[in-house]
C-alpha cells in the first residue's frame, strides 16, 4: 500500500506503519521506500535505487564521480535502479550510480537504533553483475540485526578506462568511495551506525576491498572487511594506464585510436549499451581473460588519486587501514572455468599445443617474455604434467584456475595482513556443497553441483531470485544460510566472527590466522578448525613470484 499522508514536523525521521511504504528524512532529502519480507518473515524496509552520484553521462563519462546534490520533494526508492552497461537482459543505463539500503528497524522519534552496516561490493570481474535486489537480495541477511547496503559502480571501459592525463582511471573504484561517503553522511537516517561499517566484497568486489585498505580516498570510511574469493595481491603487476586496451575499445566501436584526447572524445559519443555489449570481443581464449580492465596505479596529474602506489608496497610499509579482516576461498573456485575448456575439444587442443601463448592469458601473468615461458613450463609441469591435455586434465586445470586467479592472491593477502596489521585476520575455506551451484553446463542454462565453485557461498548470503529458490526452513540449505549470515553479521557487530555464546555457531573457537600456525576455518557440513590450506600449491606460486620482486 502506498503511503498517502506524511507529516514530518520536527522529527528527524518518520516511519509509516508496517502496511504502508516507509519514508525517511535524510540530509539530502526525503526518501520513500517499500516493504519486503525476510526469509523468516521479518518486515524489511527497503530503499532501492537511491542515487549517490550525478549521472556519469556526456562530459562526465570517463571522469571521476560527482556526488549527488540535495533534492526537493520525495525521492521514489521503491524499485531497483538499472544495471550499469554490460551484456545483460536486465534494464541497462549509464545513469546507474545508485545504491540500495535495507533494514528491519528504522528510527522513530526518540527510538534511534544504530545497527552495524554491511556494505556489499558485487562480483563480476569489473565488467558485469549488479547490486540490484534480484541478484543481491536482502532476505537472508535481514534476519540478522544489521543494516545492509548494496551498490552499483561503473564497469568495463566506462568504469576503468585509463589513458593518462585525460582519463587517469579507477572511476569504478572512485564510485565506491563516493557511495561510502554517502553512507557515512546518511546511513543514520536508516538506523545504521556510520562508525561501524563493514565492507564485504566478492571476487572483483574483494579486489576492491584490497585497494580500499591502501587508498587515501577510503580512509576512515569503513572499520572491518570481509574478502570473499579475491585479492589484488597476486602474481600480476598493476599498470599505470591501459592505453592499449582503450585503443582496442576504440577500434571495436569504430573510433580512431590516435591521440587519447581524440579517442576519448569519440568514445563519449558512442551509446553506453554499445560499449557494454562489446565485452565479449575482448576475449582472447574462450572466455578468458577473466579480468580485462584492471585497476591502475594512478600517475599524479593533480587529481585526487585512488591508488598512488602498488598495494603490496603500501601494505609492506604499513601504509594501510589496519582493520579486522575475514578472508577466504571456496573449495573448487574456478572449476566452472576449467570444465568448458576440457569439454571443448578445440579449446583443449589449442591450450595443449600453445600453452606458452594462452596460459598467461588464462592465468594472469606477464606475456611474451623469456620469464613468461619459464613460468608456463613450471605451471604446466606442476599442475598438468608433461603430456598432452585431455579429459583427465580437469582436476589439474581446476586447481590451476583456482590458485592463479583466486587462491594465491587470497593466501598472500592473509599472510601480508596478518604480518603487518595490528588487527586480527580470520581465514576460511568454504566447502559446503548443497544442491544448487553457480556452475553451468556449457551451452545451457542448467546448473549442476560440480564441486564448490566460485560464487557458491553467495547462494547462502543473498537471495538470487533470478536463479535460485528462496531457502525457507523446508530446504536443507536453510541451516547454511543461518550459519553463514550469522558468521558475517557477528563479525560486523563485534569484530569477531564467532561468539562462544552463539548456539547457531556451536561455540567454535575460530583463531586468528598467522604465518606460524596457519589456522583456518573450514565451513562445510560442520565448522572445523584446520591448518595449512593448500600450502604446497601456494608455496609454488610464492616461489614463482617472490614478494621482494614487487618492492
CATH superfamily: Alpha/Beta hydrolase fold, catalytic domain
**For the CA atoms, what is the radius of gyration?**
23 Å
- Helix/strand class: alpha/beta
Q: Terminal Cα separation, in Å?
A: 59 Å
State the share of residues found in helices, binned by percent: 25-40%
Q: State the helix count.
A: 14
The major β-sheet equals: 11 strands, mixed
Q: Regions with pLDDT < 50 over 5+ consecutive residues?
A: 1-18
Shape category: globular
Count of distinct structural domains: 1
Order of helices and strands: EEEEEEEEHHEHEHHHHEHHHHHEHEEH
Biggest sheet, spatial arrangement of strands: 3-4-6-8-7-9-10-11-12-13-14
What's the overall average pLDDT, rounded? 93
CATH class designation? Alpha Beta
State the total count of DSSP E strands: 14
Which architecture name does CATH use? Answer: 3-Layer(aba) Sandwich
- Can you tell me the CATH topology? Rossmann fold
The proportion of residues in beta strands is 5-15%
Short description:
The protein is α/β, with parallel strands linked by helices.
Structural commentary:
This protein has helices at 156-160, 171-186, 204-214, 243-252, 260-267, 272-277, 311-316, 335-343, 345-353, 355-363, 370-383, 394-420, 478-494, 535-544, and strands at residues 23-26, 29-32, 34-37, 43-51, 74-76, 98-103, 115-121, 147-151, 192-202, 224-228, 325-330, 425-430, 519-523, 527-531. The protein is an alpha/beta fold and 551 residues long. It has an eleven-stranded mixed β-sheet with strand order 3-4-6-8-7-9-10-11-12-13-14, with helices on both faces. It has a three-stranded mixed β-sheet with strand order 1-2-5, with no helix packed on it. A hairpin with a 2-residue loop joins strand 1 (23-26) and strand 2 (29-32). Helix 9 (345-353) packs across helix 10. The chain is globular. It starts with 22 loop residues before the first strand and ends in a 7-residue tail after the last helix.
Amino acid at each position: 500500500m502506498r503511503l498517502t499522508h506524511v507529516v514530518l514536523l520536527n522529527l528527524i525521521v518518520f516511519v509509516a506503519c508496517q502496511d504502508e511504504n516507509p519514508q525517511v528524512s535524510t540530509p539530502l532529502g526525503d526518501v520513500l521506500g517499500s516493504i519486503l519480507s525476510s526469509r523468516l518473515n521479518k518486515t524489511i524496509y527497503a530503499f532501492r535505487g537511491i542515487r549517490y552520484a550525478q549521472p556519469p553521462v556526456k562530459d562526465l563519462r570517463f571522469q571521476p564521480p560527482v556526488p549527488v546534490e540535495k533534492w526537493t520533494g520525495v525521492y521514489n526508492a521503491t524499485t531497483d535502479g538499472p544495471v550499469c552497461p554490460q551484456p545483460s537482459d536486465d534494464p541497462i543505463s549509464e545513469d546507474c550510480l545508485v545504491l540500495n539500503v535495507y533494514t528491519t528497524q528504522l528510527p522513530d522519534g526518540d527510538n534511534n537504533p544504530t545497527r552495524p552496516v554491511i556494505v556489499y561490493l558485487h562480483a563480476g570481474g569489473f565488467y558485469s553483475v549488479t547490486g540490484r535486489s534480484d541478484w543481491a537480495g536482502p532476505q537472508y541477511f535481514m534476519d540478522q540485526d544489521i543494516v545492509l547496503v548494496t551498490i552499483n559502480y561503473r564497469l568495463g571501459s566506462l568504469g576503468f578506462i585509463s589513458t593518462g592525463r585525460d582519463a587517469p582511471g579507477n572511476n569504478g573504484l572512485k564510485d565506491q568511495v563516493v557511495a561510502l561517503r554517502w553512507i557515512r553522511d546518511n546511513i543514520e537516517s536508516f538506523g545504521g551506525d556510520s562508525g561501524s561499517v563493514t565492507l564485504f566484497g566478492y571476487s572483483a568486489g574483494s579486489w576492491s576491498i584490497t585497494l580500499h585498505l591502501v587508498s587515501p580516498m577510503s580512509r576512515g570510511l569503513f572499520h572491518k572487511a570481509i574478502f570473499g574469493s579475491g585479492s589484488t595481491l597476486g602474481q600480476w603487476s598493476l599498470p599505470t594506464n591501459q592505453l592499449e586496451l582503450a585503443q582496442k575499445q576504440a577500434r571495436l566501436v569504430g573510433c580512431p585510436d590516435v591521440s587519447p584526447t581524440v579517442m576519448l572524445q569519440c568514445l563519449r559519443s558512442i551509446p553506453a549499451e554499445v560499449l557494454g555489449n562489446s565485452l565479449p570481443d575482448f576475449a582472447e581464449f574462450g572466455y578468458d581473460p577473466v579480468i580485462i580492465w584492471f585497476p591502475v596505479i594512478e600517475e599524479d596529474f593533480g587529481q585526487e588519486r585512488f591508488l598512488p602506489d602498488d598495494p603490496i608496497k603500501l601494505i609492506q610499509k604499513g601504509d594501510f587501514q589496519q582493520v579486522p579482516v575475514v578472508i577466504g576461498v571456496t573449495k573448487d573456485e574456478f572449476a566452472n572455468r576449467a570444465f568448458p575448456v576440457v569439454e571443448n575439444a578445440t579449446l583443449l587442443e589449442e591450450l595443449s599445443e600453445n600453452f606458452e601463448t594462452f596460459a598467461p592469458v588464462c592465468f594472469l601473468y606477464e606475456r611474451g617474455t623469456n620469464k613468461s615461458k619459464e613460468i608456463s613450463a613450471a605451471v604446466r609441469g606442476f599442475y598438468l604434467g608433461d603430456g598432452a591435455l585431455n579429459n583427465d586434465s580437469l582436476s589439474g586445470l581446476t586447481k590451476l584456475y583456482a590458485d592463479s586467479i583466486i587462491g594465491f592472491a587470497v593466501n598472500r593477502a592473509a599472510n601480508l595482513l596478518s604480518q603487518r596489521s595490528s588487527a586480527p585476520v580470520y581465514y576460511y575455506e568454504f566447502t559446503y556443497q548443497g544442491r544448487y551451484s553457480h556452475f553451468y553446463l556449457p551451452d545451457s542454462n542448467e546448473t549442476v553441483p560440480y564441486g564448490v565453485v566460485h560464487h557458491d557461498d553467495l547462494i547462502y548470503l543473498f537471495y538470487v531470485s533470478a536463479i535460485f529458490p528462496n531457502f525457507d526452513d523446508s530446504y536443507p540449505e536453510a541451516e547454511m544460510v543461518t550459519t553463514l549470515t550469522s558468521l558475517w553479521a557477528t563479525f560486523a557487530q563485534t569484530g569477531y566472527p564467532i561468539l562462544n555464546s552463539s548456539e547457531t555457531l556451536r561455540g567454535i573457537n575460530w583463531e586468528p590466522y598467522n604465518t606460524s600456525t596457519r589456522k583456518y576455518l573450514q565451513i562445510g557440513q560442520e565448522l572445523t578448525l584446520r591448518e595449512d590450506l593448500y600450502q604446497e600449491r601456494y608455496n609454488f606460486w610464492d616461489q614463482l613470484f617472490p614478494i621482494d620482486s614487487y618492492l
